Structure formats: structure tokens, C-alpha cells
Amino acid sequence: MIKKIKLPLIVALCTFLCACSVYRQTVQTRSVANNGKAWASAWQQRAAEYKALCFQAYNSAHLHLDQAIKIPSTKPLAIVTDIDETVLDNSPYDAQRALNNLEYDTKTWKEWTAKAIADTVAGAPSFFKYAASKGITIFYITNRDEDERAATLKNLQRYGLPNADNAHLLLRTTSSSKESRRQQVLKTHNIILLCGDNLPDFDALYDNKPTEQNRDKATRKLTNQFGTKYIVLPNPSYGDWEGALYKFNYKLTPAEKDSVIRSVTKVSGE
């Protein structure tokens, strides 16, 4: 009787151990990309250092604004800002996807934005309200889609952000490039500041740049703009920096993305 019981137990134990092994291999295959995003979201939500960097960015914006308004201008003054990870904090969405080993997708993203409950990035509301008090117009240039307009405005209005209306919200139309929309603002206003978390938020030099080398070259060329006219907010979770790693190949599998990350990341010698 004892021998008969042992055999099924051994088979069950072996099956369990094999399943655990497969699970560990699966997690390891995807851990670099998705677990990295979970870690990034935790940092964004919990680290005082993240908030300090946001305050630092908006403090720099405040100083440049005070200088810019002293210079005579033939046009009204404006600030152009991105929304996601610049004004609104979407880390709960990123964290939920990462912790469930899921990739970004448009359907779930729009389900998130439709809720209009994203919190603000530290320092953003007070800075933009200060700018408005100085007579400066705020334009929100975002790559959210037209069907996200109502919820986006609702989310901005939730915190009393200035110029949160249809006339000042420029959504993506035919292109993800923001250059034509910046030019649209320049027809009527003098842009004194641009705020964003992704380098194409600032300059056309970053449009259609598929390599890290091209992006680095453009950044070095624009060195003097950062911290003065270009105000960059931290975003470790996503952006064109990530796309550049993958050469903007959006068909890569999670395992392929992990392979790329492992191949380009510097590690210490053993």
C-alpha cells in the first residue's frame, strides 16, 4: 500500500517542479522589460527623489519665465506643454500593466484616460497657475487621440489648470510629430517655454530619429536650451528613448525586447 501511494506522489511532485521551472523561465524571459517598468513606476510613485526632480524642473521654468516676461514681445506670450508624465501622472496604469506582465495597448490606455483620475506631476499645477497669473497662455500639445479629448479636459480641469479648454488642447491628428502644432501656436504667440518628458516634445530635430546616436547628437546640439527654454521632466517608464533601443520596431515580442535590453546594457566585469 505504501509503495502504491509513493509513485503517484513522486509523479505529482515532478510535475509540480517542472511547472515551477517553466514558470521561472517565463518570468526570467520577461523580467527585464516588465519588471523594470514595475520598478520604474514604484520609483515614480514613492521616491522623494522623483518629486525633487520635478520640483527642480518647474523651479527652473519659474526662473526662466520671470526673465522672459521682461523682454518686449510683439506677440502674446505662451508656454507649450506635453500632458502625460509632464502635467498628469499615469504611473498607476503603467504599474498595473507591468505587475501583470502585460504590454501597453491602446484599448486599456484609453480605458484609463477615460476615468480622468490621473494625479498631477509634482510642481506642475502651481507653476502653470503662476504662469497664467502673469498673463501667459498655456497650450497643451499631446499625442492623445481625439476620442480622448473630453476626458483629458475633465482631468486637467479637475485640478483647475489654466486654459484647459478645446481651443488650447492640441491633440494628435495625422502625425505623432508635434512640430506642426508648435508652428500653429507660433502664428499667434511667442513661445517662451516648452515642457515635456520626451525629447520630441521640444524640437523637430528629434522627429524620425531611429537611433540612439542621432538622438544623442541632437541633444548635444541643443545643450544650452535645456533648463532654460526646454524643461525636461523625468520619465523612466516609456518614451522615444525606449523606442530607439528597439529601432522603433513595435512588433518585437517581450522576449526579443529583453534580448535587446540585455545586449545594450553595460554591466560590470565578473
Which labels suit this protein?
270 residues; alpha/beta; Rossmann fold; 5-stranded parallel beta sheet; two-stranded antiparallel sheet; 10 helices; 7 strands; globular
Total beta-strand segments: 7
Low-confidence stretches: 10-14, 16-30
Distance between the amino and carboxyl termini: 53 Å
Q: From N to C, what is the helix and strand string?
A: HHEEHHEHEHEHEHEHH
CATH architecture term = 3-Layer(aba) Sandwich
Rounded mean pLDDT score:
89
Helix content: 40-55%
Task: Assign the structural class, choosing from mainly alpha, mainly beta, alpha/beta, alpha+beta, or little secondary structure.
Answer: alpha/beta
Radius of gyration: 23 Å
Indicate the CATH topology: Rossmann fold
Report on the biggest sheet.
5 strands, parallel
Strands ordered across the widest β-sheet: 5-4-1-6-7
The rough form would be described as globular
Number of helices: 10
Task: Give the tally of structural domains.
Answer: 1
Strand content: 5-15%
CATH superfamily grouping: HAD superfamily/HAD-like
CATH hierarchy, class: Alpha Beta
Structure description:
Residues 10-14 and 16-30 have low confidence and may be disordered. Helix 1 runs antiparallel to helix 3 and helix 2 runs parallel beside helix 5. This protein is of the alpha/beta class and 270 residues long. The protein is globular and about 55 Å long. It has one domain (54-261): Rossmann fold, CATH 3.40.50. The longest helix has 45 residues, at 2-46. It is built from ten helices and seven strands. Helix content is 52%, strand content 10%. A five-stranded parallel β-sheet has the order 5-4-1-6-7, sandwiched between helices. The protein has a two-stranded antiparallel sheet with strand order 2-3.
